[in-house]
Amino acid sequence: MPQIIVNGKSVHTDPHETLLEVLRREGIRIPTLCHWEGLPAVGACRLCVVELDGQVNLVPACATPAAEGMRVLTHSPRVVDARKTIIELILANHPDDCLYCPRKGSCELLRLANELGITERTYRGAKIHHPKDVSSPSLVRDPEKCILCGRCVRVCSQIQHVGAIDFTSRGATALVAPAFGDGLNISSCIHCGQCVMACPTGALTDARHIRRVTSALEDPSLTVVIQHAPSVSVTLGEYFGFAPGTDVDGLMVAALRRLGFKVVFDTSFTADLTVMEEAAELVDRIRNHGPLPMFTSCSPAWVKFVENFHPRWRENVSTCKSPQQMMGALIKNVWAGNNGVHPDRVFSVSVMPCTAKKAEARRPEMLTEGRFDVDAVLTTRELAELITMKGIDFSTLTPSLPDHPFGTRSSAGKLFGATGGVLEAALRTAFHMLTGQNPAAEPIHALRESEGIRELTLKIGDLELRVAAVSGLAAADRLLGEIEAGRMNPHLVEVMSCPGGCIAGGGQPYGHDATAVASRMQALYKVDRGSVLRFSHENQEILRLYREVLGEPLGETSHRLLHTGNGGHHVR
Amino acid sequence: MNNADLIELVSQTPDGDPSQLISLLQKVQEASGFLSREAIEAIAGHLRLSPSAVYGVASFYNQFRFTAPGRLHLQVCRGTACHVKGSLDVLETLQRELKILPGQTSRDGAYSLETVACVGACSLAPVVVAGGEFHAGMDSEKTKNLLTSMEQVTECNA
Asked: If you placed Cys at B125, which of A135, A335, A443, B85 could pair as Cys (CB 3.0 to 4.6 Å)?
């Protein structure tokens, strides 16, 4: 096994490892800015430079393959000085308004300046002056805070195959922007927010809804109702000292009540409802000539991706609204009436792992009776901020349960938070619809992978059901290519826009931590293992809703409340 | 350049080959005088790149412009020799008189302004190239006179 010498100590390396990988594996912290796990190294920021015996210049660890006998110094005075100078130069044209920055608690540049002990202003450069782009319903772009690391650009084009933004112009006027310097709203942006996750500074952030929500909470004439998405309970805890993958469902509901929300519903309930409607739609499409494959519609960034880049597949997207929008429609059009509240006096909030949900809530087909189904969308990050702002000591709360009639969920609905989970949930119910029996609710391991295209053929009665799941839109693009080339012919395809699913959604804790994502995924599986109610079609509250209001899946009321217009989603 | 001509021109380049990007941008600019939105989108579609990537490359280079040139296209040399001999004065005079910045075209479509790095005529510094014609030893006064003398050019084609 090849050996290298790091700071005088012998270290083994695996074939094809870069120096950066070896050093990080050895527990040596090497700062990086442009590096992004899962993407090829670009070696642009030079922060990861190390001293290599026999080389005149410092070399970037991210782009240098480890080779037998290398002698590496990772923190020699020369190396630390070089890193410090890089940060000082970046700071020279940075706006320095950290106190007013939405990323002040989580800024990588600030952390690096701190770690490298920068306490004096060494260089003074001209500041960039460029207006904020607030045109998007989900994201805010503030080029003055951009340090041109390019992570957003590469994530957008390489992981998501969107390419809404790129470097424009040159030198001191260089800027990351959409084509023609347009606003994001008229670019090809699909709102997924993966650029926000990748941004080390405050250059890309959420379109914040906190003020909207606090104003509504203070308005005595409004009844403020909140729903929380399946994946939020396994990530929110990370903001309050819990290990990644801790399910803080009860504490979160208690915190929501403490914040003043009158009623708390669980979006996993409408995930169960989505399963009922989507499974029925699939069976209907299979029996009545398509169009097939049917694509899931829970991920609004995926829906927008189809509209922007693959309009020929538009009618293949399920007409089901997403669980967020189904819950919104039920709150204003069913719950309000049953509880003597005028729907105009209901303010409907959701907590989502997602920035695209903010845009989805504003889509024209997401109005029922002329009212928005959902009025404000908080990301997981915003909810954590709100809880902190209101002085709630999260970990000492007494756990609470969501309210009825939309508070009981099967663990199938909870699985919606991870890639493959919608399929797993839908298959359990489709099996029951087709055979009248429950399948064994064994985990479908073939679907529980976080990467690549996962395919599965299931024999249900006399039907061979072919399904596939992908996460990340580059993978989705590849899958569409396979279908177009005739190499794949599935009945049902689940697409989640963010790699790994909602647990790594654009509204979750910043950054990319594969270990944390894996823990969050396991947390959802653990909920499923420990649950007595594992089938959406056995959820008594769902059955009651069908009995009392909806009639049957795909029925008239279902169509009015839970589905978008015929012919797929509306295109602007 | 109408849309059919644009498509015709773009389709002469092999599709799906991003290495053709710069030469295709040059061809289109040569034919139509600038790169319109439609042109950038057509090029992006043809080479299977995103419009933002194509715009990113085009905006990197000084040679590409995104607005239609005016009837009189003015290039002010901002190379070292011209700078030393006062080309900033000349540029500022033009900006003031025409009320446009480099890269822009006046609203009436009469003038467009551009700065160039060096036109290779340093002995004539400072140089202004007006409609392809070199004007040597420029200063603020001469620049104003140049504009007056060119009024016919900018108006007669209107």
From this structure: B85
Tell me whether the CATH fold assigned to B3-60 matches the one assigned to B72-156. Answer: no
Q: Domains along chain A?
A: 3-75 (3.10.20.740), 90-206 (3.30.70.20), 211-562 (3.40.50.1780)
Cis peptide before A293 (omega within 30 of 0): yes
Fold of B3-60: Arc Repressor Mutant, subunit A (1.10.10)
The number of residues in chain B equals: 158
Quote the CA–CA distance of A246 and A248 in Å, as a whole number: 6
Is it the case that residue B158 has pLDDT exceeding 60? Answer: no
Q: Would you call A100 an interface residue with chain B, using a CB distance cutoff of 8 Å?
A: no
Q: What is the per-residue pLDDT for A570?
A: 41
Separation between Cα atoms, residue A300 and residue B127, nearest integer Å: 56
Q: How many CB atoms lie within 10 A of CB A114?
A: 12
Q: What are the E-state strand segments in A110-187?
A: 139-141, 165-168, 175-178
**Coil, helix or strand at residue A103:** coil
Write the pLDDT tens digit of every residue in B46-66. 999 999 999 999 999 988 989
Closest to B28 measured CA to CA, from B55, B51, B1: B1
Q: Which of A549, A491, A569, A34 is nearest to A285 (CA)?
A: A491
Pairing of β A376-379 and β B133-135: unpaired
pLDDT recorded at residue A568: 44
Closest approach of A194 to chain B, Cα-based (Å)? 17
Q: How far apart are CA A116 and CA A110, in angstroms?
A: 10
**Domain at B72-156, CATH homologous superfamily:** Glutaredoxin (3.40.30.10)
- The pLDDT tens digits for A12-58 are 999 889 999 999 999 999 999 999 988 999 999 999 999 999 999 99
pLDDT digits (tens, 9 = 90+) for A148-184: 999 999 999 999 999 999 999 998 889 999 999 999 9
Query: pLDDT tens-digit profile of A67-98?
Result: 999 999 999 999 999 999 999 999 999 998 99
Nearest CA in chain A to B50: A163
Q: What is the mean pLDDT of residues A296-312?
A: 95
CB contact under 8 A, B50 and A163: yes
Cβ atoms A473, A160 nearer than 8 A = yes
Closest CB to A179: pick one of B55, B60, B61: B55
Test A180 with B40 for CB contact under 8 angstroms.
Answer: yes
Nearest-angstrom CA–CA distance, A165 and A171:
17
Tokens (6 digits) for A33? 């800015």
For the residues A213-223, what does the mean pLDDT come to? 96
Neighbours of A377 (CB within 10 A): 31
| A303 Cα to chain B: minimum distance (Å) | 19
Beta-carbon pairs below 8 A across chains A and B:
46
Contacts B60 to A, Cβ<8 Å? 167-170
Bridge partners, residue A377, by sequence: A350
Beta-carbon count within 10 A of A314 CB: 17
Decide: helix, strand or coil at residue A109.
Answer: helix
Cα B58 to the center of its chain, rounded Å: 12
Q: What's the confidence (pLDDT) of residue A534?
A: 94
Q: What is the mean pLDDT of residues A526-547?
A: 94
B145 φ, ψ to 5°?
-60, -40
Neighbours of A119 (CB within 10 A): 7
